[in-house]
Input
Amino acid sequence: MNSVQPSAARRIVRNAASILLGDGAGEVFVGYAIVLAAGSLGPAGFGRLSEAQAFMEPFDSLAALGLENVAMVMAARRGDCDEQLRGTVWGIRMISACIAALLGVAVAFATGRGSLYPMLVALAIGMLVSPLSVVSLLPFQFHQTVHRRIAVPFVVGVVRLGCSYLAFWFLRLPVGFQLATLAASIVGALVNWGWARRVYGGRLRFDKQLAFEMLRLGWPAAALQFLVSVYMRAGYFFLHDAGPAVQGQYAAADRLLKPVMAVAGALFLSALPTVAGMVAARKFVDLMRTYRRSVLQAVFGFVPFAAVAWLLAGALLQRFAPAYSGAILPFRVLLIGAFFMFLNMLSTTYIVSLGQFRAMMIVSVFNLLVYLGLATQLIPRYGAVGAAISTTVMEAVNTVVQLNIVYRLLARAVREERVAI
Output
């Protein structure tokens, strides 16, 4: 049994490294594009841009229907991420994206955010483009061959930066930079689709019966993603009355956290197929050992990185972007929360792989209630700092809950496995 664990760990680390290396190259250009937008628009303009993006994000998560995670679980059961599975995911995602995009724009007008209309339309179009990218990535994620498309994020990042400079020169408005993001998304979807066809080939096919099966399995995952997106972006909603400048400060702190979450996301994507495969093979003892070791590695690996980010971000903002110096304290509070987010994404990987989508949905409802209880009291008093504190405390409570759930699920599975032997 011990021989399985190192092999699984090596696959996870190799795939995570490929994601980080490829995405890291692209994120350099994307990060520069964000800095260009923030510096050009100022806190108020950047706040409006960020508010529009935050408003549509829950609807984008709703459109996803949790299918990316469900597809990995289904692929593990089927033994492959074949054309039928990918085609079914694409078909479902296109229908849900159309509905969610229209719903998001309608709700924006109903809640008095009609002034964001041009950016919301660009974001809605982007929601229709993203299913093609998601479906194209699925086989690379399942087979853990992300290294075979390592150059794609670099190409997309270059396009994003180039389009951002066009916005800087010809349309230096929030909608201009959002159109730059849309252009990069379209190019990225086409490149990802072409690369997937080149490597894996095949013609995508939609299967009605499989679609119903995935929706039946995945509706809790859809609710989970929507709820997570709501409480992760709710800070922008509560800060609406504080004005776009305060939203811009919070947005800067939030964006500075992106590299940390990129690491966590890479580990999540690379670990999910392996963990799902081990669940399908009922190797629960190995899962328990891998989980314990991963938690310890996350703890010891995050602390030095966070210490550097704590000092470096403040110095960089004060030196190169003094208009955003108000983002330093919210960022440092969010950085503490990122430690708990890191552990939570790890725990979510195991809970999802074990098929416990309903458990995760219940946890998300609990998280939302905790966040709302904190945010309604702290944000009106402390603004961006209050939003950061609300997120951090909620993630800390979430960590305790999810660690307990994973240990209970794996302990029960191990006992059942030993009884069966």
